[in-house]
Each structure stands twice: as structure tokens, then as C-alpha cells.
Amino acid sequence: MSKMSAVLKLLLLATVTLLVSAQGWSNYWSLPDLLRTHVNKALDKANRNFGGPFHVAYHKTLPNPRIRGSDFYVNVLLMVTTCKKDPNKGSAHRDECDTRKPRTPWIDCLVCKQVNGEQLVDCARQINVKNIESSKWHVHVHLMVTTCKKNDNHAHRDECYTQKPKTPWIDCVVCKSKDSDELIDCAKLRDVQKSSFHRDKMSAVLKLLLLATVTLLVSAQEWSNYWSLPDSLRTHINKALDNANRHFGGPHHVAYEKLLSKPRVIDGNVYVNVRLIVTKCEKDPKKKSAHRDECVQQKPKTPWIDCLVCTQGNGEELIDCAKQRDVIQGRDIRKQCSDYHHGAATLLFQKSGNNEQEFGCLGCV
């Protein structure tokens, strides 16, 4: 290659660019080997973070991939398929997996070389990617003190999802302020609700964008499919599952069935009302209360379990599970929730002409 003239190098570059640009983006095997190498990195990342038990597959390459020398920029769209993940095949492309699982989000993955020379592989739901502008970013989260002991780092730990009793919610925001500086601010939720002096620098437009994005994300999900729910919503459902499995079902596993009303996980206000079922599965000490795909059949003559996870007026979290018939008759403890509606399981649903359930609105503007 060192003997090749500058003219030939330019011709080669033009040829490779033309080859990449001419491909049918929806056909994995029509992609050049070099491009597939980067696509495979995206598949590996997405299958580790999305799809639950279902295989994530290549759908198409988004416009204008760039692979020139050591510089690369490959943006692909992936999908959750109806195939189950196969430990033997890992994240590798599978020709038989070409059917998208209904009502699952598109996965947008970017593989690129950063300005510092390091590689970035980033995957997110496409709806989230479309609502983030590089010059106007805003991340608002609520953290909790868990029952787990701290270790040497602060990384997320899947096993730590139970809030330590009588500890406050932690409200954190990371954003670009009006003067273009990065703002990282964490405080007790009740203190933030009283005063937001530091956060006055945030644009009101950003706050509205965040509200719209979260509302759209939650509203777009398929309620009866556990894995199609956003991670932030599953976190609260897992709390309900843990509570219910400790108090109901006897030796039988209690599982998620569906949401009973439109959930609210917005700006420190949580209201997640779910219906659970006692299944035919025996409880498994190793899997504990975790969702199990094989446990979908309700045990005959067992009651529905109505669980509510909400933010109370004092800012603390309430997790309450009871037989659905008892909840319909009235449950005083739930009146402490800021969005409480008596008989939410029945009053917030109406039947339409096609017998599909329609969601009512909790706290809609």
C-alpha cells in the first residue's frame, strides 16, 4: 500500500464510499464486512441491555455511515424480535429472526470514534434519541437509599431496588444551564419542592420537553407486556411484586398481569397501580419475586392482587398490596397518595365500542 500513488488512494477511497452508499440498508448480508464489524458491536450492546428474553436483531442502517481510515460513524436501527435469545448464538445475526415483536420500541445504536480517539457504542430507545439535542440536554432522576450496603463504586446494581424504610427520596438533575455550564445538583426531594434556587438556571423549555418526553415514553407502552415497559416503570412494578410475593400466594409465585390505570412517573410524583395474579408456578427461592416469563397462567379460584406504588403527600413512598375486591370497597391507606382515586381499578377504565380498555387520566394537564 505504501507504493500506491496518491491518486490511486483517492480512487480507492471513492470506491469504498460508493460501495457502502450503494447497499440495501435493510439486508444485513449485503453490508461490507467492515461495516458489519461495527454493526455487530451494536448488536452485542443492545442484546445485553434490551429485549429481555427476546433477541435483538438488525433492521437497517441509518443514512450516511462513514468508515474512512481510522474514523468511523455507523448509526443503525435494531428491533426486538419474536425469537428467544439463544446463549449458544449470543448476539450474532440470525436470518430466521426477521419478525419484530409487536409494540416494542425501536433501538437506535451509534458506533463511532470520539474526539479523544476512543470508541463509543451507545444504544437507546429511538424515542429517547429523537428527544435529545446535543446543545440542550437535561437529565432529571429520583434516587433512593436502598437496603443494600455500599461497595467500592457507585454503579447501578440490579439487586438493589428496595428502598430503606423512612429514608427520603433524592432528587438529582444534570443539565446545561443558561450560561452553558454543566449543573449537577442533588438534594432531598422535600427540600427541592420547597426551594429550587440553583435550578432556576434551567430553561423552562427544557422542563416542558422533559415532561413531554417522559409522558410520551410511558404512554407508548403495551401495558400487558412486562418487558415492553420502560425500565423506570418496571422498577416500581418490581417493588409491588416483592411486596405481594411476601404476603400472598402461599407457595405459588405472584406475577405481573397488567397496569390498572395510567401510570405517573414524572417529576418526583410516582403513581403506579398494577394487577398481579397468583400463578400455577411454585415459588423459587433463587429467583425470588423477579418476573418469570413462564409464569403466565393464573391459579384457579385465586383472587386478583391490586398493588399501588405511589408518592405520599409527605414525599415518602407507599407500597400497598391487597385483594382487588378489598381495594374496590375502599382502602384508607391509599388516600395518602397525591393522585389517589377511590376505585381506581374500575373508575379509570371505560369500555369503548371495540371492547378495548381506554386509559383514564391521573393528574393530566
Notes on the structure:
The chain contains 8 helices and 15 strands. A hairpin with a 2-residue loop joins strand 2 (66-68) and strand 3. The protein is an alpha+beta fold. Helix content is 24%, strand content 28%. The strands form 4 sheets. Strands 1, 2, 3, 4 and 5 form a 5-stranded antiparallel beta sheet that branches. It is globular.
Key phrases:
single chain, 365 residues, alpha+beta, 15 strands, 24% helix, globular, disordered C terminus
Which sheet architecture does the biggest sheet show? 5 strands, antiparallel
First-last Cα distance? 65 Å
SSE string, helix = H, strand = E? HHEEEEEHEEEHHHEEEEEHHEE
Q: Which percent range fits the helix content?
A: 10-25%
Got a strand count? 15
- Runs with pLDDT <50, length 5+? 7-24, 131-135, 196-203, 208-222, 342-365
Strand content: 25-35%
Summed over residues and divided by their number, the pLDDT gives a mean of 74
Number of helices: 8
SSE topology sketch:
Elements lengths: L5 H16 L11 H17 L4 E8 L4 E3 L2 E14 L22 E7 L5 E7 H5 L7 E6 L26 E7 L5 E7 H6 L9 H16 L11 H17 L4 E8 L4 E3 L2 E14 L22 E7 L5 E7 H6 L14 H4 L1 E3 L5 E3 L6
Antiparallel strand pairs: 1-3, 2-3, 3-4, 4-5, 6-7, 7-8, 9-11, 10-11, 11-12, 12-13, 14-15
